[in-house]
Amino acid sequence: MLPDADDLPALLLDLAVPHEDVNELVAQWRGLTGDPGTLRLLAECVEELFREPEDTGRTPALPDLLASAPAGLRDTFAVHVLLAALPRTRAHHRARGVPADVSRRTLADLGRHLAVHRRRHGRAGVQSWRWLVRHFRGELYQLGRLQFERARLGDHDARVTAPTGLDAAIGLDTAPGLGAAAGLDAAPGTPCLNLHIPDFHGPLTPSACDRSLALAREFFARCFPEERPVAVLCHSWLLDPQLRRYLPADSNILRFQERFRIARELSEPADTEPVRFVFGDPDLPVATLPRRTSLERAVGDHLRAGGHWYIGHGWFPFRAE
């Protein structure tokens, strides 16, 4: 059951879609739902999105389908796929007992990604559909300041994601090598949680993190009692220990680092990651990066001095209530 075009503006606002994108998306929706060929393509995409629903971390094979979208919808067709998927997502949330406010705030990440796309490109669209399918497949939930993604140790290690925003680099995937050697004595396939920190949600204060973790313990015990995740995992340049050279000891980022047992570091530099997430564009020239905040100064000054940034990998134990 697709949303009616007359109901779409209110639905888009519920999803935090920027006001300046609403009219364009509604007009596109009227056109694509009135064309049988495009409507069939939309249905195929939705079916692919929900294929193998119990396989956490699965990225649907949508690129070829999305590439078949009408030329004028290339930037936004993925948005319409997610809108078409919304009734099934909400039904899944209800079946799992997901509270209405958690469902609403989780799915509002769609609007955040539209805002990020418009800020960078000046037009409606999303580049991160691979990231957003997790929300709509029922794998990822916004619980206070943080997002928690259902995962399993060792699964989908090679998966590549493209979240956007200042701190969305947290928790890109379940990294290989997190095991007994890192102090995490759990077999591959054991349920765990990947941790993500979206932008536009205020500072990453210790109290906000504490509250999110308390919400997560209650949420997963109630909505996914059979999974019993054993650990929270984080994979991010924000766990690079070099940040301690630049940031004050009481900074939110360093206090966030202290929550984790650092498992390993990659030898390959990841210099574009902090540029992307701190400044919004990975292609900005390093020489011109602003120095307005302590984090901007840390990222830019380190690169200008010839240094590199690396992805850090960490975990801490987790037990649902």
Q: Would you give an account of this structure?
A:
The radius of gyration is 20 Å and the shape is globular. Strand 3 (191-196), helix 9 and strand 4 (231-236) form a beta-alpha-beta unit. It has twelve helices and six strands. The protein starts with 7 loop residues before the first helix and ends with a strand. By secondary structure, the chain is an alpha+beta fold. Helix content is 41%, strand content 11%. It has helices at residues 8-14, 19-33, 36-49, 63-67, 77-96, 100-107, 109-121, 129-136, 206-223, 252-257, 272-279, 294-304; strands at residues 140-143, 146-152, 191-196, 231-236, 261-265, 312-317. It has a six-stranded mixed β-sheet. The longest helix has 20 residues, at 77-96.
Helices and strands in order:
Elements: H1 8-14, H2 19-33, H3 36-49, H4 63-67, H5 77-96, H6 100-107, H7 109-121, H8 129-136, E1 140-143, E2 146-152, E3 191-196, H9 206-223, E4 231-236, H10 252-257, E5 261-265, H11 272-279, H12 294-304, E6 312-317
Helix pairs in contact: 1-2, 3-5, 5-8, 11-12
